[in-house]
Amino acid sequence: MIIESLTMKNFKSHRDTHIDFSTGISVIMGENGAGKSSILEAVSFALFKQHSGKKIEQLIKIGQKKKMVVDLQFQTNGRTYLVSRERDKSSSKSVLKIKEGNNFQTILSGEKQVTNEIQNMLDMDGDLFLNAVYVRQGEIADLIDKAPSEKKQMIGKLLGIESLEKTWKNMLPLINNYEIKKENITGRLESMDGLKENLKSKIIEKDDISSKIQILNVQIDKMGPEFELMKEKKELLDEKRSEFKRIKSAIESKKQLLNRAENDKNVLNNEIRTIKDKEAAILSIKPKIVSLDILHQLKDVSRSLKNLQEDEKRIQKGLKDIQKFKSILDENHKFYRDYLDIGDTIKLLEDERLKFEGSRTLMEQCTSQKSQVQDKIQGSTEKIVKGLKAANKVLRTDFSRVEELENHIKSIKPSTEAKVEEIRSKINGVQQEISNLKTHNKNLEKPVKELENVKDKCPVCKSTISPDKRDELIEGYDCEIKSNKDRIFQLDHELKGLKSQKHVLTSKFAEIQNINVDILKERIKTLEQSQKELESISSDLEGLEPKVSKLNEIDSLLKEKKTNQNEIKGKYESYISVKGSLESLGDYNSKNEDLKKIQTEIMSLNVNVHQLTEKSGTNLKNLESKILELENLKSEYNHLSGEISQKNSLIEKLDLLDKDITGIKEETVKLDNELESIGYNEDIHSSLQMNLYNKSQELTDLIGQKKELIGKESGILDRIKELESEVEVYGKYKGELRNLKDFIKLLNHIRDLYGKDGVQRDLRNISRPLIEQNTREFFEKFNFEYSDIKLDEDYDVTVYGPAGKNSLDMISGGERIAVALALRLGITQALSGGNLELVMLDEPTIHLDSYRRQELIDLLKRMSIIPQMIIVTHDSDLEEAADTILRVKKEKGESFILES
Asked: What SUPFAM superfamilies does the record point to (predicted)?
């Protein structure tokens, strides 16, 4: 399968992203969290509806109410297809189309139908696709660094063996549940031994209890009438006791009422005597409070006189202040006018300044930007010169322009690559010839040894031969072996020369490959943009200079005017303050007229005060104390008058109280007579209650014994029914136990099939040779000096080379990277059924040190064995291996592809 294009709308962080993929190596670059891995997830979602979220709604971009859409165009089996999957908050849609001419025709719709059809076309489901095509983060590093057992587990997971192991483990609790059920049934069957004896014992126990219940019924029936008679007697005495207590309580209540009434009578008599004393006191107070009204008049006139005198002083002060403030205004009027004129000038200057405000800051920013751009231009120029110099050094040229360098590389690169391939082919041919000659010599050495060990028979045909013939045969074999060895020696010499040539050419080709013309072109483009930016900034600075000059001139004038204004600010503020105060004081003539009126009123009030003082016989000094004294007497007079008014009411209450006392005494005598007529005896009542309680306890005990026996009888009857039912099901349990044993045996057999020695072993035995063969084929394409590669049962790797047999730990770091990559591609090839067209790698360099990371990059740069490879990474070094680079960026929560 080859991916041609991918479109994502509102998929995770991608709002609207379209990517066209080509064959070769496509590297998707971006920072962590930029949305790179979402691209691989969108491929899996489009093909098989597989995703990493718990719910499919989590794939829809946050904050988007619209639907999410993923379209994937891919090629398989020589045809081009388009799969489209849509999803909103409540519904989904899936469509599969095939390309006919220039248009796509719908061939299938529906989520399950589309998924099933894609599985049939690709001959794999989603899990197999991910294990085969998708190389997860750290897998290549794990194939190098992990222990053999961990690598075996990791490869088993890719092959699907882990799910078989999980099934094997998950079946154990199921089998254990059935074992527990079997033990429960076995226990039940064991507990059922002696059921009939137990049933017979329970029937005897039930008959004994029934007999005891009959005896208790007779005792209870005999005691009933006697108990009822005692209850009737008690009820009669209960009624008499209630009536006795009621009358006794009424007598006590009457006595309390009588005591309260007599106390109230005494209180009323005391209050009437007190009122008579107060009537005498009120006659002595009345003449003293007659002059109180005159004193109040004198107080009011005196207060008015005092207020007018204060008004007189206030107006006289105001007249003096008015004369003073007018003098200050005259002194500061000139400064007031000057201050206002300067303020108007400042306002005009500030209005004009607004036209040029900000020009100085803009000029500073432009100056800073100009400096930064100049530094950027210098840096870009140095990098371009340095890059050209390094490329010329590698190519042994003297180009001054990138275009010339690019044309030269395009012209020499194919021929150099062809030479490398030609020498590589020669090396493979020489190595194959050496291997064939060595194998042939081994085959020749066998009959020589056999001829040396026999004397008169041919080791091949078993016919009789003479010693001369045997020596002749041995000599012939030895001669051929020597000839082969001589040829091998020549070939080894030739192989060293070819490898030396290959090393020189591959080094040269690698150096050419490392020359990144695109980076140089990008830097030239950046340099040209910076130069244009510098010209724009310089133009802006020329326009800003006259504006800044004018702004400086205005600022100087403003500073001068504000200084002048501050010098007279005190005089101006004094003028404003005095003017406000003068306005608040009012008109001078009007205030003078008010003063004359007040002085006339003061004279009139002085005459009035003199008259009232003579009439009351009191001077102003003692006025307040005299008024207070008479007010207290008046208050006492009013209080006594109020109390005296209650006298008649109290006499009427006293008469009514005398009548109530007489009535209460008569009712009390009547209740005493009723109490004696009842004839209630409390001792007899208590004795009867005790006897009735004892008889009730005796009857309750008998009834309790009867209920207890009835409960036991009911329990025994239930148990008898249970035992009878258990006897019936005894036979059923035996049959169920036989079935359970057979079923448990079957489950254990199935579990053994899923175990390590069952299907897991068969799957490993089938897949391991295929993976080994694929790994060998991929590894040979990396052109290392090794003749073979083997995998043992634990997928541990052994390589065979000029120095013989080597484990993975014994070879170089670059060779270990090559083995790990070949092994992972071999697994992919096996899982994909031998039709490997696409591999997707997610952060392949993660967990690798810098040396091994560079070795992997070098391998990827030379890789042309897979039609399409998509690599997701944040490692910028991988750009060296790319045929196509896609840069992913994320801003404000939205991922997008940068334009190249």
From this structure: P-loop containing nucleoside triphosphate hydrolases (SSF52540), Rad50 coiled-coil Zn hook (SSF75712)
pLDDT < 70: residue spans in the chain? 53, 63-65, 160-165, 188-196, 454-464, 727-731, 754, 758-760, 762, 803, 833-836, 851, 862-865, 899-900
CA end-to-end distance (rounded Å), the chain: 27
Q: Is 366 annotated as a binding residue?
A: no
If asked whether residues 48 and 91 sit together in one domain, one would say: yes
Question: Does the annotation list 36 as a binding residue?
Answer: yes
The full length of the chain comes to: 900
Domain membership of residue 875 as a residue range: 2-123+833-897
815 is in an annotated binding site: yes
Are 8 and 90 in a shared domain? yes
Residue whose C-alpha is closest to residue 258's, from 653, 672, 661 = 661
My answer on whether 622 and 667 are in the same domain is: no
Q: Tell me, yes or no, whether 838 and 886 share the same domain.
A: yes
Domain count, the chain: 3
Residue 496 inside a domain? The answer is: no
pLDDT tens-place string over residues 451-472: 777 666 655 455 667 777 777 7
pLDDT in tens, 394-420: 888 888 888 888 888 888 888 888 888
Please tell me the distance from the alpha carbon of residue 731 to that of residue 735, in angstroms, as a whole number: 7
Tokens of 776: 């060998």
Per the annotation, does 566 bind a ligand?
A: no
Of all residues in the chain, the percent with pLDDT exceeding 70 is 93
Residue 814 annotated as lining a ligand binding site: yes
Q: Within the chain, what is the greatest distance between any pair of CA atoms?
A: 190
Q: Is 249 annotated as a binding residue?
A: no
> Binding residue per annotation — 810?
yes
Mean pLDDT in the chain?
A: 81
Q: Cα separation of 114 and 96, whole Å?
A: 6
Residues 21, 119 share a domain: yes
